[in-house]
Design a protein that fits this description.
Elements: H1 2-24, H2 35-80
């Protein structure tokens, strides 16, 4: 069970990074040109706009990725014997 949670957390991290990058490519996010303000505003945009709308997609994607990673681990273990 602990290994499944580990793979779920890896999938969750991958989905958060993926949705953060997709949020940066959204037309609603505007860059100011000042790097530190852009970082703060991108995190603010992600928390206030992306997460409320994409939380279910992130959760389902994390479960699917966790199962895929766990399945790959089991497959590799069976191949090694």
């Amino acid at each position: 069970m602990k290994k499944m949670i580990k793979y779920f957390l890896i999938g969750l991290a991958a989905m958060v990074i993926f949705t953060y990058l997709l949020g940066l490519l959204d037309d609603a996010f505007h860059k100011t040109g000042i790097w530190h303000k852009d970082i703060v505003s991108s995190i603010k945009y992600y928390v206030l706009w992306v997460l409320p709308y994409w939380w279910l997609i992130i959760l389902i994607g994390s479960i699917i990725l966790g199962l895929v990673f766990y399945g790959i681990r089991i497959g590799i273990k069976k191949l090694r014997g």
